[in-house]
Amino acid sequence: MIPPKESGLSTATTANNTSSSANNGAESAARPTRRKTSHLKDVPPTLELRESLRSRCAEVAKRIDRSVPLTKDQMEQIARRFLEEADLPEGYLGWMMVMISSEFWKDQLASVPPERRLFLLPHCLKHAEGCPAEYDQFGMNCKECGACSIADFRSIAEEMGYRVLVAEGSPVVLKIIIGGYVDAVVGVACLNVLEKAIDKVLLAGIPCMAVPLLSSDCRNTKVDESWVEQMIRTPYVPATQQTKSYVHLMRAASELFAADAMNELAPRVRDQSPLGGDAVTVDSIAKLDTIAATEHIAYDFLARGGKHSRPFITLAAYDAMMGGDCTSEKGAEAVGALPVTVRRAAMSIETFHKASLVHDDIEDDDAFRYGQPAVHHRFGLPTAINVGDYLIGLGYRLLSRRDADDSISSEARVDVLDALATAHTRLAEGQGAELLWRDSKSRQLSPLDALKVYALKTSPAFEAALFSGIRLAGDAEAYRKPIRDFSRNLGVAFQILNDIGDWTGDENNKLAAGGDLFGGRPTILWALALESLQGDERDLLINLVENPDAYSDTERLAIATRLYHSAGVFDTAMQLVDKHQARAEMVADELQPESLRRLLYFLVDTVLERPEVPTPNVISLSSVPVNSLPVV
After folding, report:
1. Taking the mean position of all CA atoms in its chain, how far away is CA 92?
2. What's the chain's Rg over C-alpha atoms?
3. How far apart are CA 30 and CA 628, in angstroms?
4. Low complexity bias: where (predicted)?
5. By the 8 A CB rule, do 530 and 541 touch?
6. 251-408 and 411-619 share one CATH topology?
7. Per CATH, which fold does 251-408 belong to?
8. Would you state the pLDDT for residue 551?
9. Which 3 state secondary structure label does DSSP give 301?
10. Is the pLDDT score of 426 beyond 90?
11. Predicted confidence band at 431 (pLDDT cuts at 50, 70, 90)?
12. Are the C-beta atoms of 323 and 595 separated by less than 8 Å?
């Protein structure tokens, strides 16, 4: 047992003071500097110690303001203070953060009936290699072999009405929630998976409790079984929503692209054939009138796949400037009252985005999109180009429509139209610069030039989505520059992370690792490698692109990976991400109202998801000082 010290009270008081400052909006609540915590995943070794720590976490959680979700930074701050005052190892930090978060959400989760809860379980606890269960895209179908307790937990949960998912950090969790099937999550997993799988769920303000496994590996381990059963049996206690949540706005953004919503906001004029589960093909549209076919292909692609993050940003920015009712206990009702013009504007931004994806897939000759063959692979280049053009026209049509009872002024519409047109042209400039570099004979590229391309390609969509929501809510002149600065830094950091993620592949889009290298696209990783490598190593890297036939794909990928590690580009790129993230947060720190500032913090935390950096196979003998990193 740990001694009863004042750590719980003082830590909770600190958390309350931090929350109160943010909520009052009187001062900018600057975010604390982040520290790496991925290595701090130790589990307290005895049940007695774990029980004692959990009890103290419950005491701390009772004193924390519940009006807004507890951020990862706040959890870390509270957990660190607790461990320091209790004289416990820093390695327990990750475990303590899970405990604090679970206790924070316990009462809110109890207000959700069991049939609206999701129970997330790991793979076999006892002997993963010998587990007889079958797996599919939705997780594991447990065979109830008796080797571990998963089947017992599952039976209890199903008897109570839970939806149960056996998967390891599956991205389908958030999709299930946004789809409207569940409103809360309880989970069992190792600390590594909990950090990745549930972070976004918590940030969105979705009640979530978890019991960590007793080792860092999610397989062949144990769990405090009495804790799991106690968590599952959390009694239903009806109550109103206490903590602000983005879930209603996330669902609203996704529902914009359901058949009924599209028929309301952007009704088809040529044909009303239903959109099927599989992507349309030449054969499936054979019976359609040829004039109607373009509309049908475009609407099918618009309704298919994607995270709908841009429409969400527009809806959330509008709501933030109008008082934040959509994140309150009245969220479902408030979302239903969003003006049709705001919903059409949100839909138009996604329509422009989808148009750019059709064209981008053509320019890069990508084979898949959303797990389906790309449009140009299904219908050919001319038809795909035309479908992209149709979507651009549809996007502007959505902005020009005006209903008789529309409350949005003509001036606001013009400003939003101008913002989207500007974003569109800047995107084309950035994409054009990338294509010209790809097709040129010179492979030279400076880090600053790479970052300029990123600022043009990725940032305008964030800026247009944010500005549109703010402008439709009222005067936005004072927000133009800060939103542009925030979006530029967020977009650049996002694109750098996307480049790093390219080296691990993308199963959702059936992309293999190294796609940017094989496609000859300019990236910050390439620029940093050229800047750092010397002599034969630099010549070898350039030769990989200039003479691709001299190597197999496997050889090119292996050599490039070795050279990138030799140049330390992954570490340098992550330093750049940190630098641009810090700059984005500095902009957010100064903005009012608090609801808008909280949205910007949420975007930083959810958009800038760190991928797994490839394990170095060469030790870098030098690194680039952070102060010398280029910034656009």
Report:
1. 26
2. 25
3. 25
4. 7-30
5. yes
6. yes
7. Farnesyl Diphosphate Synthase (1.10.600)
8. 86
9. helix
10. yes
11. very high
12. yes
What whole-number distance in Å separates Cα of residue 268 and Cα of residue 602?
35
Closest to 580 in 3D by CA, of 569, 568, 572: 572
More confident residue, 275 or 524: 524
Residues listed for the chain: 632
**Alpha carbon distance 287, 372 (integer Å):** 22
Contact between residue 150 and residue 219 where contact means Cβ atoms under 8 Å apart: no
Contact (CB, 8 A) for 78 and 11: yes
The type of residue at 273 is S
User: Cα–Cα distance between 192 and 614 in angstroms, integer?
Assistant: 17
CATH (one of 3.40.50.1000, 2.170.150.70, 1.10.600.10, 3.40.50.300) for 411-619: 1.10.600.10
CB 613 within 8 A of CB 574: yes
Domain ranges of the chain: 47-243, 251-408, 411-619
Phi, psi torsion values for 97, nearest 5 degrees:
-65, -40
**Burial classification of residue 79, based on how many CB atoms lie within 10 Å of its CB (0-12 exposed, 13-18 middle, 19 or more buried):** buried
What's the one-letter identity of residue 440?
S
Both tokens assigned to 392: 């651009």
- CB within 8 A of 490, min separation 6: which ones? 459, 462, 580, 581, 584, 603, 604, 607, 608
DSSP 7-74: HHHHHHHHHHHHHHHHHH-SS--PPPPP---TT-----SSHHHHHHHHHHHHHHHHTS--SSPPPHHH
- Residues 566, 509, 197: CA angle, nearest 5 degrees: 80
State the average pLDDT for the chain. Answer: 84
pTM confidence score: 0.86
Q: 163: helix, coil or strand?
A: strand
Q: What is the mean pLDDT of residues 586-606?
A: 95
Structure confidence at residue 2 (pLDDT): 45
